[in-house]
Amino acid sequence: MSPFLLFCLVFGSQLMAGFSSSTPPPSYGDHVSVLSIDGGGIRGIIPAKILDYLDKSLKARDPTTSLADYFDVISGTSTGGLMTAMLAAPKSSHSKSPLFTPSEVVQFYKKYGPDIFKPRAIWDLTKCPKYDGVFLRNITRQILKDTRLNETLTNLVIPSFDERRVSPVIFSNFKLKTETYLNAKLSDICLATSAAPTYLPPHQFENAGVEFDMVDGAMAANNPAMVAVSEVIQHTENKNVLLLSLGTGTTKSNKLGGIFDGVCQLGWLINSVDVFSEALYGTDMVHYYLATVFPGLLSQENYLRIEEYNLDPSLEGMDNATPKNMDNLEKVGKNLLYQNVLRVNVNSFVPIPLDQTNAQALDRFAEKLHAERLLRLKRKSMEKEGRPFIGNVEANSNRISAT
Q1: How confident is the model at residue 387 (pLDDT cuts 50, 70, 90)?
Q2: Cα–Cα distance, 305 to 226 (Å, whole number)
Q3: What is the predicted pLDDT for the residue at 197?
Q4: CA gap 360, 46 in Å, rounded
Q5: Is 187 a known active-site residue?
Q6: Rounded CA gap, 53 and 67, in Å?
Q7: Can you give the three-state secondary structure of the chain, one letter per residue?
Q8: Other CB atoms closer than 10 Å to residue 304's CB: what's the count?
Q9: N or C: which end of the chain has fewer CB within 10 A?
Q10: What is the C-alpha to C-alpha distance for residues 374 and 393, in angstroms, rounded to an integer?
Q11: Is 78 labeled as catalytic in the residue annotation?
């Protein structure tokens, strides 16, 4: 047997043994990998389609894995928070497989979206919020059951906002050692982060003796990328971050002209709801903060933001769950893959096209994620054996030669 073939066999056997266990933590690797998903209601179909492409790209490298095997942190706000839980909750208490694949998330939206955003009965139309939230509460509890934050397949970071305390609440696996009351059921966390004011009712619940009165996580961070990276920096020693940030689409707006021309600010607010929404829920400042605080993160190799910056205004509604609109949102996600990557200039806030498509960028990102995972498995194997990995191969080679 040739030395090269022997090396391949020994290397493969040790590496495949590593695949039988969960991915080693970031301490074994060079990077902390983070996935961040914006809020946006039914427009969550768009990032779900992007993740479906990434999931397939990763499975082409190893069909036994899921997104939770590659991302140390998955973060989401509102609809992104719901998606985060679905991708990271285990199928059962003893399973290492996620509850949903990205493809199944898309089908979830298309199947249940019309019921989640079902208009109130005609005699109930004067009530607020716009939707009673009963179906969303029931289906969320049905699929997530009693799974708690500490039982997820990877670390989650999901922001929400407590309207009683008037302060953000970050549900994070990293915080559980010191803030044990945050170890809530995933269903409660999802209902908390998705309780968009005027659309869905606040979500009240109690956990470990602490009462929560929660509204939409977008009140704290519609784009949770900064929150997720901050959690990583606070709670891990590894400052090298791989970040994939996914948006739910934004439309162009030219409403800022003449803000003070009206008779009062209220008149401007009534006529400029889209501007107010962008100021409250927009994500441009997240790019700015990331560039300021973590300048190394914004390299083309470590940070990928995928967003539709010119969404058709007819698709903007976060609660438009008609079959036609959901089909169109799915098409937006598909078409986005073949558009060029856009990187926001943090001085002008204008998206600048790069020389690669989003699909090409995702494939490169998948390669980096896969290489990071292989590196961790290799280093874990070395530690387990208690000597350098190459030394293990040479020792096994000598043993086989002696026989």
Answers
A1: low
A2: 13
A3: 85
A4: 17
A5: no
A6: 11
A7: CCHHHHHHHHHHHHHHHHHCCCCCCHHHCCCEEEEEECCCHHHHHHHHHHHHHHHHHHHHHCCCCCHHHCCCEEEECCHHHHHHHHHHCECCCCCCCECCCHHHHHHHHHHHHHHHCCCCCHHHCCCCCCCCCHHHHHHHHHHHCCCEHHHCCCEEEEEEEECCCCEEEEEEHHHCCCCHHHCCEHHHHHHHHCCCCCCCCCEEEEECCEEEEEECCHHHHCCCHHHHHHHHHHHCCCCCEEEEEECCCCCCCCCCCCHHHCCCHHHHHHHCHHHHHHHHHCCHHHHHHHHHHCHHHHCCCCEEEECCCCCCHHHCCCCCCCHHHHHHHHHHHHHHCCCEEEEECCCCCCEEEEEEEHHHHHHHHHHHHHHHHHHHHHHHHHHHHCCCHHHHHHHHHHHHHHC
A8: 21
A9: C
A10: 17
A11: yes
82 with 44: CB under 8 angstroms? yes
Q: Is the pLDDT of residue 78 over 80?
A: yes
Burial 217-245 (b: 16+ CB within 10 A, else e): bbbbbbbbbbbbbbbbeeebeeeebbbbb
324 pLDDT exceeds 50? yes
pLDDT tens-digit map of 1-58? 444 343 343 344 334 333 434 678 888 888 899 999 999 999 999 999 999 999 999 9
Choosing from 52, 72, 162, 216, which is the catalytic residue? Answer: 216
Q: What is the mean pLDDT of residues 358-366?
A: 97
Question: What is the tens place of the pLDDT at every residue in 184-207?
Answer: 999 999 999 999 888 999 999 999
Catalytic residue among 36, 57, 78, 245: 78
Highest mean pLDDT among 53-67, 212-226, 343-357: 53-67
Whole-number pLDDT of residue 395: 35
pLDDT computed for residue 160 by the predictor: 92
Comparing CA positions, the residue from 230, 237, 192, 231 lying closest to residue 210 is 192
Q: What tokens appear for 272 in the block?
A: 């400029």
Q: Which residues neighbour 352 within 8 Å (Cβ) at sequence distance 6 or greater?
A: 342, 343, 344, 345
Whether 281 has a pLDDT exceeding 60, the answer reads no
Across all residues in the chain, what is the average pLDDT?
82
